[in-house]
Design brief:
240 residues, four-stranded antiparallel sheet, alpha+beta, 11 strands
Length: 240
């Protein structure tokens, strides 16, 4: 009975530690509660949230689509360092799923509820803020903003990330097809032939590693190590 209690306590402690490790490197930021208007600016994701995570940061935005009262829909969002200027910074971002136009506007396909990309540290570290009245530097308003049309973002989930692929770029003519969902990244033609089997990437090392971004050992490894340590302690006590 005592052994079962000791093992259960070790497992509970390990899970608690792993939950702290996971939660320490994620954040939820509330953005717009309603559509700010055509071609208007969104609320910003503060630079301080990126600094708290450090390194490359993955951003997952919750999308709401706003259909126009007149004309065809045009769901677009342009990332920008707004307090400096309204130029697109899309070239500096990476995403395995997002599709953009050449002018930097990311296309929101019909029915899409999230938008995901990675912001490298070299990009978010350049976010600047300036007081609207004084024009003096004000880090409290520095962050990632978006110029929006026919859509808005209600929240953003930030977590430690790693570089993804370059965003797929389409022409103005193909942008509508992307918006309608008839052109997707999965349906895009392959860039090159598949590599021969002999050139396949080597299998990943199974040894536990430490994340370069967070400095944390993965949660599953932590649980295993602590459980083994507990079992060893019990065995030692029994022999005595």
């Amino acid at each position: 009975m005592k052994i079962k209690k000791i093992v259960a306590a070790i497992a509970a402690a390990a899970m608690a530690v792993s939950m702290v490790a996971v939660n320490a490197f994620a954040a939820t930021v509330t953005l717009d509660s309603e559509y700010p208007g055509g071609w208007a600016a969104s609320k910003g994701i503060p630079k301080s949230e990126f600094e708290a995570i450090g390194g490359d940061v993955k951003v997952v935005l919750t999308v709401e689509v706003k259909e126009p009262l007149v004309g065809e829909h045009n769901h677009l969002a342009k990332p920008m360092n707004m307090c400096v200027n309204w130029d697109a910074i899309t070239d500096g971002l990476t995403s395995d799923t997002a599709i953009r136009k050449g002018d930097g506007f990311i296309i929101i396909p019909e029915g899409k509820s999230t938008l995901e990309f990675v912001v490298p540290e070299s990009v978010w570290s350049e976010f600047k803020g300036y007081g609207w009245d004084t024009g003096e530097e004000d880090e409290s308003v520095a962050g990632l903003y978006f110029q929006l049309n026919d859509c808005y973002f209600t929240s953003a989930e930030l977590s430690a990330g790693s570089p993804q692929a370059e965003m797929m770029v389409v022409s103005e003519d193909d942008a509508k097809a992307v918006m309608e969902g008839t052109i997707t990244r999965d349906a895009a033609p392959a860039a090159a032939d598949e590599a021969p089997a002999a050139d396949a990437a080597p299998a990943a090392d199974s040894a536990p590693t430490t994340s370069a971004t967070t400095g944390n050992v993965p949660a599953a490894v932590m649980v295993s190590v602590m459980a083994v340590a507990g079992a060893a302690a019990v065995a030692t006590k029994k022999r005595k």
